[in-house]
Amino acid sequence: MTRLVMGPFNRVEGDLEVTLDVVDGRVAEARVNAPLFRGFERMLEGRDPRDALVITPRICGICSVSQSAAAAQALAAAMGLVPAPAGAAMAALIHAAENVADHLTHFHLFFMPDFARPEYAGRPWHERAVERFTAMEGSAQRRAVQARAELLHVMGLLAGKWPHTLAIQPGGVTRAPGVREKARLAATLRAFRRYLEEVLFGGSLGAFAALATVDDLLAWGRGDVGLFLEIAADLGLERMGGGSGRYMSFGAYPLATGPVLARGVWDGKLRPLDEAAIAEDLSHAWMKGATAHPREGRTEPDESMASPAYSWCKAPRLAGQTVEVGALARQVVDGHPLARALSGGGVLARVTGRLLEIARTQEVMERLIAGIVPGAEYMARGHLPRQGEGAGLVEAARGSLGHWLRIEGGRIAGYQIIAPTTWNFSPRDGSGVPGPLEAALVGLEVAGDVPLSVQHVVRSFDPCMVCTVH
Amino acid sequence: MTNVLWLQASGCGGCTMSLLCAESPDLIETLEDAGIRLLWHPALSVETGAEARALLEDVAAGRVLLDILCVEGAIARGPAGTGRFQMLSVTGESVMAWVARLAPVAGHVVAVGSCAAYGGVTAAGGNPTDAVGLQYDGAHPGGLLAEGWRSRAGRPVINVAGCPTHPGWVLETLMLLASGEAVALDGMGRPRFFADHLVHHGCPKNEFYEYKASARELSEIGCMMENLGCIGTQAVGDCNIRPWNGEGSCTRGGYPCINCTAPRFEDPAHAFVETPKIAGIPVGLPTDMPKAWFMALASLSKAATPERIGRNARADRVVVPPTLRRPK
After folding, report:
1. Which of residues 63-122 of A touch B (CB under 8 A)?
2. Which of A10, A22, B22, B264 is most buried, judging by how many CB atoms fall within 10 Å of its CB?
3. What pTM did the predictor assign?
């Protein structure tokens, strides 16, 4: 057996270290370490509850709006406040723009550059991958960076700035759009659609979103998506880093009429989500305390960093089991036929989940803009209770994000956060069951100091390590 | 060519995300055109693991001469001064130790964001990880590096503060350094080209401010200084002169400036969205103005508030348009 310790693992958000035990050229065991602890949950204790809207977005510069949305929802629940429907729609639009921007960043800046590496020279697609995706140079990267910056004009118009906005509030949003904002937002989204259809997908978003089988997907053959699919078929990315097939989604973009994407759990069958069945196991985290539901959970770091723990990350489980979260999970739970056909899959499935979501969310954003009614009420008012509690369960780009808030004496008495990558990159639990990434790496063929297969599998989850431990 | 090594210490990565919002030209073109090459950036470079470690060792050992070291995020010194709350993966050393090794070999050191400059949000609420800025601990000089520390080029750490930083602040600082121009700093180590302005300058709520026509709840378009915690009249930054993400800013987005370019902004002695008052009078009035004059002018202008401005201040959009004066 040889041990391979990989890091600093870059082109992921935040700090990551992966330890692999390799036997006969294959991963026998994997351990994932989140080596950064900041202690946000502790910082929040004793504060005015509204401060969570300032502090929690700053957990993460890439999922900042998701943290805002979760905090606002937790506060609203504690206040017994229902957001103004038009305000909820604008919060959804702001959130959707972040999620799509994050998917774009992941594909172009984090994931694809590995295929431009010289190790792949000679593959029929390599020269095109070099031209399109070389880090900081590729023509696709340049175009994506521009398109992303322009899409984020949605933030300039509705959310002041990105990241770290205070625009999303428990009762709605702080800026009421008028006719001219509506027209400008529509123009921004039309430009973004043009980019997606001409460059990324090389075809109609509707046609991509209508794909139902893996064969049809692999035959797409256009745009940078087509290049990715060609690479995926050649390298067998479909078989690399397969998942458990258990997926969870908290349901994305809550509108007055319900979430745009469904809430639930999939394990070959769709089941309702039982939020009470969530618990965080601390057996392999540098944390003191017992397994608890986040409502009762605590964050007390073990500064001695004692074994057998090997990460600052807690191990969340749903009814004692791991679940995978993310764009693929959301699309599977929502019932998209292609996502269902890809369920249990690895690198290809996860990346396709994101591409599918870009195509589908564009249409959602356009619909939300078309539905803007200038003059509607965008903010409902409420009062913070002296005592109370509330949960905010949202879908960040990388998957299910939960905030659990307890207020006592008008101050924050407890605040627990479970981020998407806390689920996906969790360490082992008390029964020794590895987290989803740890499980996905087992059996993977590895070669060399920087095994590319590991790069592809790890990045296929689009980890956000700053959120993971927070 | 000017080379830049970028490290992410204890922070959220949001300053990099904001940097990617640079436009006309975009981030990649701006750097290229200015002759700035990223030796390594954790979010953007291809090199990972062993490749990245070799590069860092080359720089630390002086085999690659480093022009600019950018550090994003605070320096976590805990637990007990070990820095082990943030280990640089596989190297067996903390990020604190790495920054301490790399800073002396850099021509210039740039603290990107309020965390790297002063500790920022990473140091909030009792500072669980004993985080500091590169050359400041909150508002006190001396952080990881001592007050008198100077880079290879003889300069203190340049604090491009902000939470996040505006992409223009970072890029203009790098461009000035690359072209050999002096970057004048204010009393908190921030480049004066953005720190000589106040967030108040160019704020679209200026007319409301003139009359102290105040919003009482978020989403009302009046001035947010009196009730909603806005510190734009004291906070440094050209946020309302140059826009964010196309045409935004915090106050344009309808929420208060929380003074994110300042040390200790993360722990105000009140809720962020509430103005502390004594006997109904806001504490923390605009800088550079005698309090008595401010009070006198405020009560006078409040009494003189036109109906249009008073009504609009309490609405979430303009409900009373300006009176039209027809030419005679």
Report:
1. 64, 105, 109-110, 113-114, 116-117
2. A10
3. 0.98
